[in-house]
Amino acid sequence: MVSEGQDRIAALQARNAELQRLLEASREAMGEMRAKLAEASAPPHTFATFVQQVGEHADVVSNGRRMRVGVMPDLDVTLEPGDEVLLNPMSVIVGGADPERTGQGALVREVLDDERALVVSRGEDERVVRLIGGNAHSRLHEGDTVIIDPRTGFASERIDRSGVEALLLEEVPDVDFDSIGGLRAQIDRIRDAIELPLRHPDLYVEHALNPPRGLLLYGPPGCGKTLIAKAVAHSLADAVGTDRSYFLSVKGPELLNKYVGETERYIRTIFERARAKASTGSPVVVFFDEMEALFRSRGTGVSSDMETTIVPQLLTELDGVEQLGNVIVIGASNREDMIDPAILRPGRLDVKIEISRPDAASARDIFSKYLTPELPLAPSVTEPANGDTQRAVKDLADHAVGRLYADPGNAQYMSGALIRNVVDRAKTHAIKAVIAGGQRGISTAHIDAACEAEIAEARAVAGSHLREA
Predict the structure, then answer these.
(1) Cβ proximity of 191 and 88 under 8 Å
(2) Which of 97, 138, 184, 249 is buried most deeply by CB count within 10 Å?
(3) What pLDDT, in 10s, does the model give residues 262-277?
């Protein structure tokens, strides 16, 4: 009987413990449900933008309204200007929130200091915004696009716009004037116009002479206009005495945009970026290739006459560049007669230089840039020169020039690009000869074959143009 009673007591105790566990679990579940119900029925929190800490309070902007609110004492969040915060129904900061990644785009017109910038949005609406995070000078430049919140006056982040950034690739050209052949007279004139004012500014001031702010390179395609523009950017760094120069290369057709005002905005962005780079003391070359494609003479009636707004925008920027001595504008064109005369007048693109087709002497100079003693030469080329590679290369170049200009009519097809292609074709023939088991090195036969092929192609292209005309 005693053992049965003990067993019954033990069973009751176990059952009581189980009931107690179930009761505690039910109590916890009820508490969680009450908490969730309270959370679900609680008034919504309000999003606001933190501006600054003022003692135990904080200034915030919510829905365009600036307020001074309290801060929850146990808030474990470090707040910086521009951070998103949550306000409870009593307008007390109770926590932080993830920042908004969308907003209105604006163009940076000027970085005022480490905390502020002047931006343009909605056309020409200018306003000063506060930059989140500071250190604006190391992050933003004129022409950059940022996200702003018009209600709070904060700029949250910089964004890349491929349409603009593709136009602003900042190359550091490695081309110098010594690598350009056949254009010595034009190069001397360019250096006199551009480098002299930078090397001797005191003399220009003394003589009350305003240096040119831009130049136009015109002539047939393939004659070195782009190479000269790159060489200018390379040499300007030496003239100014800095180790860095910038070359903003812009092809005319890339600026065209079907939306009204976008092309003008691109032009403003380009010059704003140039002014920002120039303000650091580095020389900047803004190079417009195929200039006639965009800045045609106004009133021609071609297309939609969009040049009636694009040309004035460029004129405005060219006039604005006059105050910056280390910004040079260079235009290149195959049809200078199609460019609006207002762009070419003195005070804008002052210097006009024709890059003409090379004559025989210029062609020899161009060949010397591509036919060098370092190239493998065939024995038939080196033996007559008694192993003197310098002389052998010169004789090979003379042979190529004689072949190209044997017919006086070929002069109309000549260009630096054609001469370079002759050398490249000859190298290809030499490589194929080695692969086929022949002698190693460039020979006169390779040069002859390359000259004939290039002239034949040039005649065919010219003939097709005549038939189309």
Answers:
(1) no
(2) 249
(3) 777 778 878 877 777 7
CB distance 248 to 270 below 8 Å: yes
Asked if 207 and 265 touch (Cβ cutoff 8 Å), the reply is no
SS3 441: coil
Cβ neighbour number for residue 89 with a 10 Å cutoff: 10
Give 172-176 contacts, CB < 8 A, sequence gap 24+.
172/244, 172/245, 172/246, 172/247, 173/230, 173/231, 173/233, 173/234, 173/245, 173/247, 174/234, 175/227, 175/230, 175/231, 175/234, 176/231, 176/234, 176/235
- Global pTM reads 0.66
What are the start-end ranges of the E strands in 11-73?
Answer: 46-54, 57-62, 65-71
The burial of 398, by beta-carbon neighbours within 10 Å (0-12 exposed, 13-18 middle, 19 or more buried), is given as middle
Phi, psi of 73 (to 5 degrees): -55, -35
User: 115 burial class (0-12, 13-18, 19+ CB within 10 angstroms)?
Assistant: middle
pLDDT 10s digits, 316-373: 877 765 565 578 888 888 888 888 888 888 777 888 888 888 888 888 999 988 888 8
β-pairing verdict for 65-71 and 92-97: parallel
CA distance 264 to 418: 36
Q: Which long-range contacts (CB under 8 A, 24 or more apart) does 161-169 make?
A: 163/257, 163/262, 163/266, 164/266, 164/269, 166/254, 167/248, 167/250, 167/254, 167/255, 167/266, 167/269, 167/270, 168/143, 168/248, 168/269, 168/270, 168/273, 169/248, 169/249
Query: Cβ–Cβ contacts within 10 Å for residue 346, how many?
Result: 9
The closest alpha carbon to 191, from 226, 234, 244, belongs to: 234
Dist CA 205 CA 433 (whole Å): 62
Query: And the tokens for 329?
Result: 């504008």
